[in-house]
């Protein structure tokens, strides 16, 4: 059962990583325009120099 | 909203705290940039986004422009000399509809901090509860001794910080209620969470079998989900309501000392300023007419449909609409002192008289909270007296609290209101107030305002068929040169009937009176009775002088708003009493009441009369729904049990009402009442479902048979059933 000593921290770390990414997406306003973001990816114009 | 373009809350806390207008001014000064917001109601695809963004960014003065498809808005950062009008024409040239939004009003709302905070707490609680649940599954399926203790300790290490962070909204609310010596839903929640964690810690330290860390976390997670749904529903309604306000950009044309014009924000006006109000414009302030003659449409303020004559020396009030000639006015009261704002006092009085409505959730909590505490205390005392073992007694008390904790109750109301509000929003109704749906479900009496609510506020020519052809052709020729609503009604009706204008020369408008022209060497005139020299009539009328005596009358009636007849019919069919109350003249109100089949009506009502009548109805036990749009309705809207105003209403009326009708159509009102009733039925059903779960699980808990597994099953099952039941709403 000593494998638990590795597996539990690993699973917690991976879960925590997911949580951290979610927090990052909330903080960087990625849920402000869900519809627009879903469509923007279809645009064939690639913006090499985003202004902001 | 696209945050990179705006100062975020953390970057500029002072901006968020300052009033909307102030923060915008600050932002402008700081960056030397103008923030412009446009509403783009017709955009729908990725091509729209790229086309508009490309066109806007191509403008030399624009620093950045970004389109938000969800909100159907564009936010533009540009040099200060770039005007919103320029941006608007740019977008309209692409074939999209565009309206300017007052960036000051929107700025204050762009950062939904409370919602973001709740979402964060929800995410943390979700993450922690999933992890602890996994560890608990191992314990339930038979982990023993050192493994079980290890799992319990790891669960504790996850649960404690999570509850300290995620549980804060409940702790704060519970504390606020307790410090006022009241009980609310959050008190049993807090007690259950805290007691569960404390007994579990104690059990774990004694290598005990049962720990409720998973239950405490699942509780927090489900309850936060309910809170978040609730918050989102209200945030959506609020932002849509604010967009309506932002569409009315408060600008005025001020005359400088040398006679030149400048466009300024209404907030910058001072008493004594000279202002120019063009035909079609709304008075920004109270004042006196210095020069010019025109007619004023006062319908939003008083409900009168007949335009009144205005000339030098006459006083005007903010909110009146100038119809025919340009007017120069000297401001006598600005901002908060205008008569428009003084009406707010009347609203405040009416609101204090409104019977305080207890929501279903609150009344459930009032029954529920003491019951839960007494039950768990009894279980504790009973088991303590039976076994004289503190540990067992406390364990059982905690189990009772967790089982009875209003987890499903916390979801019962928000899940239903979210589903119902979403449904009504798609039909064009904006539910602004949290208990508006429940109150709408109780309505048995409906009171309508006339002008602007049942009628569209635009006149319609009624006697076209009775008029000789050459008179109509002459009137059409004269009417086409004017922007007066009656003239436009003649133009519309005559054009639709296929008339062509008679040949006339030298068409000129005499502001405040009518239009004149030369026809076959004679002067012909179209205008008000006193100017033409005709006998005035009871109904709205314009007169045509053919230059040969005996003027011809053109009669008008208010055009019904779309769906008005259907709404009245449907409401009457569902057994509600329908009333009509208006500030307009008796014949006009009577005619409309007859047309719609409304038997009870009241004409020439002052604002105070309306609210007094509605309060009297309320005192007699009627649940009154008030539908109105004007300033004269605001007090009545606030006094009624629940109120609806159309989007075309004055800002003050929309603020005073619980529900805003977004489209021009009145027909959804009756359907909304039905939806509200079925929503309330669902809420009651949800309460019943939650109670059934309790009735089954509580005896187990009191008997000491409840394991953490049963607690987790009961809680998840009841929460999920309640949410699914809410989604059944039609």
Describe this structure in words.
The complex is a heterodimer of chains A (52) and B (730). Chain A is mainly alpha-helical and 52 residues long. Helix content of chain A is 62%, strand content 0%. Chain A has helices spanning 3-27, 34-40. The mean pLDDT of chain A is 81. Chain B is of the alpha+beta class. Chain B folds into 5 domains: 3-111, Alpha-Beta Plaits; 113-247; 251-337, Calcium-transporting ATPase, cytoplasmic transduction domain A (Distorted Sandwich), CATH 2.70.150; 432-456 and 561-676, HAD superfamily/HAD-like (Rossmann fold); 458-559, Calcium-transporting ATPase, cytoplasmic domain N (3-Layer(aba) Sandwich), CATH 3.40.1110.10. Helices cover 53% and strands 17% of the residues of chain B. In chain B, the strands form 5 sheets. In chain B, strands 14-26-25-24-15-22-23 form a 7-stranded mixed beta sheet, sandwiched between helices. In chain B, helix 16 crosses helix 26 and helix 26 runs antiparallel to helix 27. The radius of gyration of chain B is 32 Å and the shape is elongated.
Mean pLDDT of chain B: 81
Strand order of the largest sheet of chain B: 14-26-25-24-15-22-23
Ranges of chain A where pLDDT stays below 50 over 5 or more residues in a row are none
Distance between the termini of chain A: 52 Å
Shape of chain B: elongated
CATH homology superfamily of the largest domain in chain B? HAD superfamily/HAD-like
Tell me the structural class of chain A. mainly alpha
Any idea how many domains of chain B?
5
Portion in strands of chain B? 15-25%
Roughly how much helix do the residues of chain B carry, as a percent range?
A: 40-55%
| Structural class computed from helices and strand pairing of chain B | alpha+beta
Spell the H/E element sequence of chain A.
Answer: HH
Number-wise, the strands of chain A total 0
Number of helices of chain B: 27
Residue runs with pLDDT of under 50 for 5 or more positions of chain B = 1-30
Profile the largest sheet of chain B: 7 strands, mixed
**Main sheet overview of chain A:** none
Number of helices of chain A: 2
